[in-house]
Amino acid sequence: MSVSLVSNAYLDETSSKIRSKPVPWEGYQRADLVTSEELTLIKKVDRQPRAKIESLLLSDGQTYALLYLRLLKKLQRVDTMQSILVLIADALQDHDERIPLFTRTTESDPELPYTPLLRTLDMQDEFMQLKAAQILTVLLCSEPKPLQPKLLQPFLNTLASMIQSNSNNKHDVGVQCLEALLARPECRQAVWAIPGIIHGFVDILKRNPGPQMSYQVSFCLWLLSFERDVAQDINKKFDIIPILVRVAQGAVKEKVIRVIVATFRNLVTKAPNANLPAMLVAQLLPFAKNLCTRKWTDEDIVEDVQFLRDELAANFQSLTTYDEYTSELASGHLSWTPVHESDDFWKENAAKLNDKDYEQLKILIRLLKDSRDPNVLAVAAHDIGQYVKHYERGKKPVTELGVGSVYWQRLCAEHGINKEGILEEWATEGGDRKDVFFYQADDEHYIPRAILVDLEPRVINNILASPYANLYNPENIFVSKDGGGAGNNWAQGYAAGERIYEEIMEMIDREAEGSDSLEGFMLTHSIAGGTGSGLGSFVLERLNDKFPKKLIQTYSVFPNAQEGDVVVQPYNSLLTLKRLVNHADSVVVLDNGALARIAADRLHVQTPTFDQTNQLVSTVMAASTQTLRYPGFMNNDLVGIIASLIPTPRCHFLMTSYTPFTSDSIDKAKPIRRTTVLDVMRRLLQPKNRMVSTSPSKTACYISILNIIQGDVDPTEVHQSLLRIRERQLANFISWGPASIQVAPTRRSPYIATNHRVSGLMLANHTSIASLFKRMLDQFDRLRKKRAFLEQYKKEKMFENGFEEFDDARATCDELLKEYKACESSDYISYGSNDNEPS
Questions:
Q1: For residue 511, how far is the Cα from the chain centroid?
Q2: Is 648 among the domain residues?
Q3: Rounded to the nearest 5°, which phi and psi values hold at 93?
Q4: Of 83, 168, 700, 754, which has the highest C-beta tally within 10 A?
Q5: Is 146 within the bounds of a domain?
Q6: Which of residues 396 and 542 earns the better pLDDT score?
């Protein structure tokens, strides 16, 4: 195989300058780095006319090949190594017959010819790196036997970094080297195993390169497309088809179109099902028809274009509307085609998004998370809304597939920890207490103090398939062996807890024993379904029994008041509420309806995505622990926070407000122009910003307020803001307790850039939350009066002899409601002292 040295103007110009520079060969001899014989030989070619050098190589080429490589191996000065590389390249230039002279040097030294050349690739000097790549390509491409991975891999890794760099010279040389190497099958397989090379090709094409570079990169892709596994997956992984279509449409040189069309033919021939739909979405069919009408000088292109046109036309005829839709999803290029806005399409096909483990739904959610194209984001958000609207139980999978581990991702970002649990090199400011929520493994990775538990695998499988999969301790992940879930039934979830009690408690005990100063537990769950409510209730009871002196705080997601995916959610919610009253020390109430309303308002969209509401919740959760992780003088432990908010044990249900939600905390949030402490504290008091949907009442009042203010805060500004709020009577407090807003200033994470000076979270104990409990009671009573859906509860041990547990849970909720209402009166201190009042 005849291979020429890759050409590059920078290499040619620099080589010309290096040929005329003197090299201190005599000094090397005096230092015993060069022998007398080597000195004699090298002086014969050093800065000599080309004709004289050619004559020496003709008569004694093997000796000089061995000399050059030995000198390159043992000398380390940059200018000397540059000269040797130029001598080697000059010897090989236009003389393929000399290549064996260099490859045979391995007979004299097993490290030759490749070890010194590969070492040179690691040098910082750009000329040396490019010149070594030029020489290595010629030698490797001429090897008669398949190339060994230990030889090929380091060279390909260097080429990957070259084509991904910002240097045009590195792009030029790197692509030419790959163009030559990819003619060999083993090189094609090795390149396919290095995603950085394909990403480099894609990035170059996206920058609208000149015709020659477009041709060379497309030629590399054409060579790769001869491999079946490449043809099968290259568009799925790198979205290459629409990029090549765009390059071909804008090409002015016939050779660029020719090689791209040949690439498309390979993709269709070797993997039609994977590529034809994507080609149709990329509008290749009309372009192919147009190409068929042109005059071409190359007959091969005519045949390839006609082949493409015919294959695409045949595939277009057989496509169903849903096939077109999935092809568009696979391409990642969504646009407002009629199918998206057709109610008939969604009525017929919404449920199909569940096929193959929610494959199409996952693509939509991934596009929402990763795309930066506003049109793609708008169409994807619309499609998810249509899925939820037309598939009866659509909210549940969307919520689960979107949640992931947003809260832990937020904490990692705030502490400078990457997705692998490794502290970033730039995270050096310190001052934070990472050990509150993380501990360090033996290899110094940070691991969350978290236990992930579910009765069905889908949620946790999605976490384990996310970029943060390696963050968690695998010993702290539990999925029920049968994987059947709790069937949205509190009783099933609770009964499952009894079966898996020992496994769950073993994980909890291990984490508790590994804590130096355990203060309490935080539980995050939903109260409407089966697992979060039933299993969550069981865990809550057992935690309280086993750790009676430790605090338990929950973040409990309450169902939307207006709509619900679970028909028995009134039963599940009330049964869970009883445990939250009796076994939790503090409950942060998060209302799905209020979350959706706030997210929609902040984003100016009609239907916010579940991922956006989850980001909102994670921001609130992170802010509520800010004083623990970035401690100041006050509220730097959990007991300090809870004690300031809960003066009476049963009334421990807290509502939250947060402002401002901006793009650093929730994607696509509208900008906030200015923030002051007064403005933030005033916004926190506005009912529309509360994350609980409560009914307005003239008698409702605050029992307590704690504002956690993050950022650049002057104590004088805080004091003046409190005076202004008091003067304007913006907060109505109970009459029997202190009527004051507590403020905890705290530092913001230095690792997250923000576009606002001040942000704030309000944790508030407010009597209007009684309206939430009243709504839950009313929904429960309506369902219970009809005796609806009780049979599925009777199947479990707790209810096999009757429904006293329902009655007891209702009574507990009713007592809680009455006590919150009693807090509004001045004689609350005597509440419960009369026989007719609950104690």
A1: 27
A2: yes
A3: -60, 120
A4: 83
A5: yes
A6: 542
